[in-house]
Amino acid sequence: MIDGSELRHKRHAFVVDDEQSMRFFVASALVGTGYVPHEFSRATEVEAALTLFRPDVIFLDLSLGASDAVEIIRSLASSLYAGGVVLMSGHSEVTLGAVRKLGESLRLTMLPILRKPFRISDLSARLAALAGPANAASDATDLEAALRQGWLELWYQPKVDLKSMEICGAEALIRLRHPERGRANLGHRHWFC
Questions:
Q1: What pLDDT band is residue 108 in, cutting at 50, 70 and 90?
Q2: Helices 43-50 & 69-78, crossing angle to 10 degrees?
Q3: What's the pTM?
């Protein structure tokens, strides 16, 4: 169960893998780097958790029994997920590259792939890649450059009334898409009907 008090002021990561030992290994490594890990073995569990909150990063295995990473990637894109995604697998480079390109084409922040087996230092390097956009968003010089270079994007996320299932508003999100460091959220504003 995800505790609401635990969600504030901490970095969170989803670990999605159908192998319990791999989830444990990645989750243990994440705790050591200051992240709060949340472990999942199925796509349906991830989708349910995403309705509660958004993690900073998702470590995603390609094969998940009855479902796969492509299903989750499409779901993340349709919900405008703004965190990082790290694919992890022992599959071929061609397969991993194709799934990564799919994520990029859907405008997700796809971090470098973790080829199984991997070391904790490899995982830490992926987290360091994620830290770059957050630092860029907070740096005033980079924000000025983003304005001059046209790196800012306006995204709208619909708000749905759960009783009537009708769109009742929107959330406007400003995102910085740096050509080398990826995407970061700069802020949001709620609009209601």
A1: very high
A2: 20
A3: 0.64
